[in-house]
Amino acid sequence: MSDSGTRITARPPAGDARRAGEGLRRVLVRDLVLGCEIGVFRHERGARQRVRINLDLAVREDALPIADDLRNVVCYDEIVSGIRRLVEAGHLNLVETLAERIAEMCLADARIRRALVRVEKLDVYPDVASVGIEIERINRLP
User: Fold this and answer.
1) Which end of the chain is more exposed for a tag (fewer CB within 10 A), N or C?
2) Which pTM was predicted?
3) Are 91 and 72 in contact (CB under 8 A)?
4) Helix (H) or strand (E) holding 54
5) Which domains does the chain show, CATH number per domain?
6) How confident is the model at residue 19 (pLDDT cuts 50, 70, 90)?
7) Cα–Cα distances in Å, from 76 out to 11, 32, 66?
8) Which residues in 10-22 are b (16+ Cβ under 10 Å) and which e?
9) By CB neighbour count within 10 A (0-12 exposed, 13-18 middle, 19+ buried), where does 133 fall?
């Protein structure tokens, strides 16, 4: 109740991605470490560096049950295989470019509503565990 005595009812904001009866599940990929040709400097060309990739994907839950069927969920094996293909596609200058490509790949699946992508280079400085970037992208597909 408000101070004026009227009852206040909590409602989700208009346009909220979580409609009644629809939830979100998170698909995670943690600490995927791959050799990647990445970097803008001459000494980084033609050499592989270790990168660590982390994903947190917010996935819309369908009204239909999962029914213990892989076809009814976002398959993390397909996500990891797609990341491997992106890394193997050739030299990239920036970790930002790799992060954007990973997010774009993930968001091609309309069930994935949000992608949080972190890409870190692990061997740049001897006294720093990693340097990198984290991006968050929202799916605009219906």
Assistant:
1) C
2) 0.82
3) no
4) strand 49-60
5) 24-138 (3.30.1130.10)
6) very low
7) 33, 12, 15
8) eeeeeeeeeeeee
9) middle
